[in-house]
Amino acid sequence: MDNIIENVKDYYSKQLQSKDDLKTNSCCCSEKPPAEIRKILPLISNEILNRFYGCGSPLPPLLEGMTVLDLGCGTGRDVYIASKLVGESGTVIGVDMTPEQIETAAKHQDEQAERFGFKTSNVKFLQGYIEDLKALGIEDNSVDVVISNCVINLSPAKEQVFKEIYRVLKPGGELFFSDVFADRRIPESLTTDPVLRGECLGGALYIEDFRRLMNKCGWADFRYTSISSINLKNEEIENKLGFAAFSSRTVRAFKLGTLEDVCEDYGQVAYYDGSIPGFPHFFDLDDHHRFFTGKPMLVCGNTASMLSETRYKKAFKIIGDKKTHYGKFDGCSDGADNSKESAKTGSSCC
Ligand SMILES: C[S@@+](CC[C@H](N)C(=O)[O-])C[C@H]1O[C@@H](n2cnc3c(N)ncnc32)[C@H](O)[C@@H]1O
Q: What Gene Ontology terms for biological process does this UniProt record contain (predicted)?
């Protein structure tokens, strides 16, 4: 376990100096960020952009005034984008274990605040481990949104990471993260290979084990907002790992005690009012729930909770409650789906 941590630190401090040093495209973002984020990117320092190793765009909307925590923030690209999105009344905390990464990130603090037109920086960087946020003074129920970009796969203690996230999130808070996943368990001999691990492949979570882990750590239901398959583009690495299919996925999960492990039908209907900045016509809760502005949509109890017991409630009207149960929500699958493009939702849900 300590070896994995030290090898990963070495990879991100000594082996990689910029995106060009990556051996595969697993830590390369193929997802086009939403328009609101594309507008902020030109305001971010080139040094930060050149050392961005994320595999997605885990920056949800409605962040103004929020406290956001970025796990494994690297040189801080997503921290600074979130800094602009939360505005001067919000706070962003970036955590990373590799001193060189944190130093580069922190070096740009004043310059970024100035580029955003802020009086003082709303960003704080902490050097430490995502498995032990308590040691960094991050209190229970203190964070509105946890983000992470291509990091949790690197952890040798993933259960501890998800437990810590659950602990620090406020009730109704959101976990929104992008990571590399595998369609099967990676043999142990390969999970400890420093290059495979460093490239975010060796430690990639098998999607069904991820679902089990999430359920165990408190998330009875979670959703994928995007799934794209990864083409490794490196013959040597393909020779070692070609038996597995890897994908980059973005996950949305809420800390809500009311979620059930299967989607249930209470006859609830949701209306989106079009007020989420950047989403005037529709809002995608996940990869199979698109809410068109003003159009009523029948939703399961879990989806209704996600839209009415979180910060998204200001943009949604929910008709009905959970007093009358009409059975399992129509369209739900039975149990885990082991197909290649499986687990569209984290539970056996709609
Ligand atoms: C693939 S990079 C991604 C960095 C950043 N999120 C980005 O998008 O550029 C992985 C980062 O996670 C950090 N990291 C890996 N495991 C960690 C752990 N257990 N605790 C804290 N940081 C960790 C590494 O130091 C590295 O900076």
A: methylation
